[in-house]
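S., here's the first fold you wanted:
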Amino acid sequence: MLKRLEGTDAEQFQRFIGDENTIVLVDGTPYLVARLPFLNEVGLEIEADPELKASIERAKQDIKAGRVYSTEEAIEMLERGEIEP
């Protein structure tokens, strides 16, 4: 799940995290804060959406298995009712 901190919240958060992994105690519960590898905005959205991430993974597997279609083929399959939009 992606949570954004901006403004004062972001400033306060940055005060107690370092460049390495940081453990933060919140009401006695420890949390690990770790810097993720660089991700752009699209990468962050994908990581935050398990359903989208799974769909992309299925698409990658389809491509590896040779299950690829041209736009024309996909339109024809839709028109014949072989696939759902």
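And the second, which I think is the more interesting of the pair:
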Amino acid sequence: MKSNRFSQEEYSLLLDTHNSRLLGLSQSECEQILIGAGATREQAKNGAYVYLHHGANITSSRRGSRSLYDRILNDFNAKTKAPKDCIRHLEKIEFGYRQAQTAVYNYRKRNGLIGQ
């Protein structure tokens, strides 16, 4: 079985074309749209989740350096917070979801917080 590869932007565009947010579609309904377009079940699950839970914060034109992320996360007291809270904090200040996710992972790894 051949699977298509899509970017999150393509998933979002497809779901926006179907007015998924406007109609209040559920995650499983969004998954069915993506599967109908050729995504695997796992791709559809991940694409629909990010679309529904991270909305417009998928991409960002804002860029951050390691030192900027470290300063922001230190000021947020990230060493004592859950990774999801740190990601949400970065999203609130206009970093994209994937940017925030990567920045938090790298921060936690550098500070010995992975696996704790």
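Why I say that: The two ends are 39 Å apart (CA to CA). The longest helix spans residues 41-54.

Talk tomorrow,
H.
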